[in-house]
Design brief:
One of its GO terms (cellular component) is plasma membrane. By secondary structure, the chain is of the alpha/beta class. It is built from eight helices and eight strands, in the order βαβαβαβαβαβααβαβ. The radius of gyration is 17 Å and the shape is globular.
Length: 253
């Protein structure tokens, strides 16, 4: 059986307390799976010590590529840049806050059998405060209603995707709504999904960038705009290759 070719991607924004352990565990996990892998971190305008941590890590890991942006790209901009930068046949991503464990990547890989394009994690249980758990469940059911999702956990950003599947969609969002856009467009492009239970951990460092009123209001506006485009204007959701966002970047090695 041939070994996989994997790009591992972490967007990082004020994740100085977690990004080092994620890179280390991702490197250790990938070395056990294949000799054809890369780890990409897009640092996204952090105001803590994330940049300093990544600058120390980069010389120690030959497979690590660090792209720093002093002006924030937004979560969507960072994800688009990660996808556009990746060179391997499989693309795995999760957040840089450490709430998911990259050591569970082999669980996804086991389900990526012929005929499957995307393997999506779903949380065994959500390790967040009660209020966020309630909001998360409401969000999940609202998205299923609005967009016809068939996944059991739309909000689980622990995904393994074939590059051939990514090449079938165009992503446009620069906000956190890109995860919704990604899953919807992959689904509409006819991609086959598999799902795997994964652990979700308490946030050990920093705080969520989503749970504040201005950001929630913007997300609601973006979701309704996306729904209008797909359901009312009926714009096609699967078209072409993902492109990187414009902007200056610095790669540290």
């Amino acid at each position: 059986m041939s070994k996989p070719s994997i790009s591992v991607f972490f967007p990082a924004y004020n994740d100085g307390g977690t990004i080092a352990s994620l890179v280390i565990e991702a490197d250790r996990t990938c070395r056990a799976l294949t000799d054809d892998y890369e780890i990409i971190v897009v640092e996204n305008g952090s105001t803590d010590y994330t940049v300093e941590v990544l600058e120390e890590l980069a010389p120690q890991f030959a497979r690590l590529r660090v792209l720093t942006h002093r002006q924030p790209l937004g979560y969507g901009g960072a994800l688009k840049l990660g996808i556009a930068t990746a060179t391997k046949e499989l693309f795995f991503y999760t957040d840089g806050d450490g709430q998911y464990d990259p050591r569970e990547l082999p669980l996804l890989l086991d389900k990526l059998v012929p005929g499957i394009d995307v393997v999506n994690g779903y949380k065994i249980s959500r390790s967040d405060p009660l209020g966020r758990i309630i909001i998360g469940r409401l969000y999940h059911w609202a998205m299923k209603l609005l967009f016809g999702f068939r996944l059991r956990d739309v909000d689980c950003d622990f995904r393994l995707i074939r590059r051939t599947a990514l090449e079938r969609v165009t992503l446009t969002s620069n906000t956190g709504m890109i995860c919704l856009e990604l899953v919807k467009k992959l689904q509409d492009a006819g991609c086959a999904f598999a799902e795997v239970p994964v652990h979700h951990y308490h946030r050990a460092y920093g705080k969520s960038q989503f749970f504040n009123l201005p950001r929630i209001a913007r997300t609601v506006t973006d979701i309704l705009s996306f729904w209008w485009q797909l359901r009312v204007r009926r714009l096609p959701s699967a078209q072409a290759v993902v492109s990187a966002p414009e902007g200056r970047r610095k790669e540290a090695r």
